[in-house]
Amino acid sequence: MSERQPRLTAREIIRVLERRGFFLARSSGSHLIYKNPEGRRVTVPAHAGKTLHPKVLQNILRDMDLTTEELKVELGR
Question: Among 2, 16, 21, 76, which residue's beta carbon has the most beta carbons within 10 A?
């Protein structure tokens, strides 16, 4: 059985992105597009304080090439 993903807001996942070398490349409406030096792109829907849907978080982690366990270590949980 797989472990549950943490429930995060856009602000929390953006902190993780920036610590891992991603930078804000542009925005489109309420979506923030982050890139890293290798060219990997991650889109984060930034809706004021709302928790990201688990499937959205799963897609963000896939785009970052990060596992749930690595995310928990990054968050200190």
Answer: 16
